[in-house]
User: Fold this.
Amino acid sequence: MDEKIMEVKPKSAIGLALAYTLKLWPRLIRYVEDGHLKIDNNLIENSIRPIALGRKNYLFAGSHESAGQIATIYSLVGTCKIRGIEPEGWLKKVLTVIPDWPANQVHKLIPGELQ
Assistant:
């Protein structure tokens, strides 16, 4: 790449690509040197996409209170996913038991605590 970059125009597509690659070369070789590293961050990006979309949607929640409630629901669904709990099933169960649930035991309704 060091030789080829001298043969192409700096502003050409290949010139820009080579310059970019050479600039990031120390970071790129880390991937080859450590087999534990992933080549991309697609898994992370896909996992946080709902949060980014939610953040955009909060602008249209109607009020700050509504946006806070939506954020709480996102947090509970996220907790379900982290703990390997199917969110819809957990929510159905919570909505079934909550009318008779003691207020001082509400902490036992979080995902993973409700049996």
In short: The two ends are 60 Å apart (CA to CA). Residues 13-33 form the longest helix (21 residues). DSSP finds four helices and no strands in the chain.
